[in-house]
Amino acid sequence: MEQSAQQAQQLDHLATAPPMALPSPFAAFGAPGLGGPAPTAPPEPRPILELEGEEYEDEIDALGDWVDDFLLPVYGAEVTTAAPWCLRWQEHDDVVAWLHALWLAYQQHKDPEAGLSGLFVWHRDFLSHAVAVIRAPGGPLSACMTSPERPAHRILPGPPSSTRVEKAKTQSEMPGGLEPGEPAS
Q1: CB-neighbour burial class of residue 65 (10 A; exposed 0-12, middle 13-18, buried 19+)
Q2: Per-residue DSSP letter, 41
Q3: Mean per-residue pLDDT for 35-45?
Q4: Residue 172 domain flag
Q5: Half-sphere CA count of 10, side-chain side, radius 13 A
Q6: Residue 127 gets which letter from DSSP?
Q7: 91 is in which domain, residue-wise?
Q8: pLDDT of residue 25
Q9: 79 belongs to a structural domain
Q10: What is the C-alpha to C-alpha distance for residues 95 and 101, in angstroms, rounded to an integer?
Q11: CB 88 within 8 Å of CB 141
C-alpha cells in the first residue's frame, strides 16, 4: 500500500511539474517534437486590394520596387501589341492584384525551405501564367502602351453591376424598401 501511495505521489508530481528539456540529437535539425525549436508560423499574407491606407501604400511601394528592379529588367521583354505594358500599372487594380500574388509566390519559392526546385516551380506555375494574363493582347493592359515610342494609359470599363445588385440598390432607395410602383400601406 505504501509503495502504491509513493507511485501515485510521483505520478502527481510528474503531471504538474514542467517538462524538463532534455538534449536531443535531433535538436540541430529543428524537428518539432524532437527537442528542436518550435516552428514559428509565417505571417498570413493578405491580398493587396484588401489593404488600406498606409499599409496599402507600403505594400504597393515594395511591390513597385520588385517590379521595376527585378521583374521588368529580367522578364519584361519587348512591348508590342501582342505584349502590352503600362507605365502606370499601379492604377490597374487587376494588374496590381496579379503582380502582388506573383510577388508573394516569388518570396515563398525563393525561400530555402522551397528546396532547390523552388524557383523552377515559381517560373512554371506562377510567372508564365501571370505574365501571359497581364500582358495578353486582350488583357487588362491592352488599351495601354503597345510601343515604347507611344506611351499610353487607359483604364477599360468593367462590366456593369448585376441586375440583382441594381434591384437591391433601387429597393434600398425607395421609402420603406418598397418595390418601384408598389403602393405604400
Answers
A1: exposed
A2: P
A3: 64
A4: no
A5: 6
A6: I
A7: 52-134
A8: 54
A9: yes
A10: 10
A11: no
Total of domains in the chain: 1
Q: Which pLDDT band, with edges at 50, 70 and 90, does 113 fall under?
A: very high
Q: Which residue stretches of the chain are H helix?
A: 2-16, 53-66, 72-75, 93-110, 118-122, 128-134, 163-173
Specify if 7 maps to a domain. Answer: no
* Length of the chain (residues): 185
The answer for 53, left when phi > 0, alpha when psi is -120 to 50, beta otherwise, is left
C-alpha cell at 93: 487594380
Q: Which residues contact 156 (CB under 8 A, 6 or more apart)?
A: 140, 142, 143
CA separation for the pair 27, 36 (Å, rounded): 4
Q: Give the predicted TM-score (pTM) of the model.
A: 0.65
3-state percent breakdown (helix, strand, coil) of the chain, nearest 5: 55, 0, 45
Tell me, yes or no, whether 9 lies in a domain.
Answer: no
Give the model confidence (pLDDT) of 124-177 as tens digits: 999 999 999 999 999 999 999 888 888 888 887 888 888 887 787 877 776 655
